[in-house]
Amino acid sequence: MEAVPRMPMIWLDLKEAGEFAFNAAVKKSAVSVPRDFEGCSTLRKYLGQLHFLQSRIPMGNGQDAAVPITWTEIFSGKAVTHEDIKYEQACVLYNLGALHSMLGAMDKRVSEECAAGAFTYLRDHFPHSYSVDMSHQILSLNINLMLGQAQECLLEKSMLDNRKSFLVARISAQVVDYYKEACRALENSETASLLGKIQKDWKKLVQMKIYYFAAVAHLHMGKQAEEQQKFGERVIYFQSALDKLNEAIKLAKGQPETVQEALRFTMDVIGGKYNSAKKDNDFIYHEAVPALDTLQSVKGAPLVKALPVNPTDPAVTGPDIFAKLVPMAAHEASSLYSEEKAKLLRDVMAKIEAKNEVLDQFMDSMQLDPETVDNLDMYNHIPPVLMEKCAALSVRPDTVRNLVQSMQVLSGVFTDVEASLKEIRDLLEEDEAQERKLQELLGRVPPAPGSPPGLAEVSKECSKYLELHEKASFTNTELHRAMNLHLGNLRLLGGPLEQVRAALPTPSLSEDDKQVLQNLKRILAKVQEMRDQRMSLEQQLREMIQKDDITTSLVTTDRSEMKKLFEEQLKKYDQLKVYLEQNLAAQENVLKALTDANVKYAAVRKALAEVEHKWNTTVQTLVASYEAYEDLMKKSQEGKDFYTDLEGKAAKLLDRARAACQASEAHRQQLLERELKKQPPPRPTAPKPALQKKPPELEAGGPETAELGSLVLSELPEELRSLPPELLPGPLAQLPPPALATLAGG
């Protein structure tokens, strides 16, 4: 993965400045900065000097020296004017973050943390009502985007440095976490309306990156499992990485070629890893492959942070050009008070985040979603996918009949072919039996001259057809089995909808079960109410801190009284802190009640899960039967075509077999006759009666017949005397049955 092409990054446009009654030369140099790090330095200096000016001259909102300040709003292009020097500071600070984001998106991949720091300072220290592009939602989105891209840069460096697989996986997982936060902001309807047309482009890129870096995280978890010789875990991590990468590829349509190159490169790496790991495990290690959800999730490692902005840092701002106007004590005291407010916010947020983490982990372990904790409503109607199939069959009432008829025709042709092939086989076996009998009678293999050659060809062709028939027979059986499997479902889908609904499983809950469900849903609603209240109180605290400016009081307060003034001013936050403490303390009781309710819900949950599984299985089975219909009809027609062709060939082969067997029988008769002719003539004896015309006494089978039989038998060769009568040469075959019996009996 070291050579993977880089993904593009999001960068922000700079705001354009308008009217501000300030020194023209200073204003020009501050708003028309070059797009490089020198420009960032200029903006920082200008921001610092504005801060110094604000601490000495009353140029804030509603103050005596306030003048109109105009800047262009990024998304709408409208000019926005405020009489507040802090508006100028906010816009300069926004441009500082935007310029850092632009530099961070370049090849050098730096300064994303600086951009995040600028936007964080802007969000936490300035009002959000100045313009849409500096609202709390937009700034939070920008911060998460910049942190995600900064972590992405760190991930690139970690892979180039060949850091340990587990560390790379955690860094990549944190990239996913930052982009998920950004995606949640992009999906917010209010944020989407503020961003306008760029919202879709940003959301599409961020969603693709979420899946892509999740794939990278699981790729490196698989590499770690490989290093630990956990070959089953290696397979599931690589498989998960492959699945997530495929999702990223789906979301990458329309993205630039650099994205496509990165995805192709990563697919080559992950695909190769997965195929190799699966093959090794299947043939060598044979380790059980665990389910992914049984393995410990990859926890992100946030190794980047928003770099803090200090507007009064002398190393950045340079000399204070307004130092002689106002004593620095007031400014320094204001900075100290700002730090006290920041400390208060950090303390409160640490408690909130700790409780939120516990709550998130608890809810993840419970796997309880208030929206789907009971799914009873879905059993009240036939799902759309099934309704679609029922509607399709309602306009095709002959579906089942056509399928049955088609299979019956196929069975008929199949039987005809089987009968023809059996008759051919019987003829061949009978011919072989006669041939063996002749060999046994002659005591040797009969000479081959003149033997009909057709039988061998018939036998060979018959074997070929039998083999085809045997293979097709298995397919035919499977086709009938599949038809029988789907026939009942097709009849059901083509019938009344009431029958379809009745065929779908439905849960049967007692009143106690319903009460358990209602109680669980009530407590889950309490959990959500607790979350919403906590977020609202946090937002109120942030807004209150941002608006808290005691500079005027500091100017008139003695330095020795500053600490006391801070304490008094910070008391205004006590009531909010009490509300937050109560909210956080209530969490333990709410979770305990949820645990008890979940225990009671376990049996109901199991029953509902089983019914839902059966319901889904039934729906899938019915849909599969509908989708199998066309395939069954197609395969049935292919089977008919195959067997019709085979039937014609078998019929022709049967005719050839009959003719060949007849020719073979005639050939055997010729052999017998030749064998008789080869015998020496008999010694002269009394004249033999003619065989052409049978005397009456022979017809009757009297004593003369027996005498003639004995006479003929004495003249036969030794090897022909045991032949059955039907195999004797032509002249002897004319003897009546008694004479033949005499011959056969010897």
From TrEMBL:
Source taxonomy: Eukaryota, Metazoa, Chordata, Craniata, Vertebrata
Naturally occurring in which organism (per UniProt): Atrichornis clamosus
Signal sequence annotation: none
Pfam family, one: BRO1
Cellular component annotations (GO), alphabetically ordered: endosome
Keyword entries, A-Z: Coiled coil, Cytoplasm, Endosome
Biased composition (Low complexity): 722-733
Sections of the chain in a coiled coil: 414-444, 520-547
Protein name: PTN23 phosphatase
Domain BRO1: 27-359
Biological process terms in GO annotation: early endosome to late endosome transport; endocytic recycling; protein transport to vacuole involved in ubiquitin-dependent protein catabolic process via the multivesicular body sorting pathway
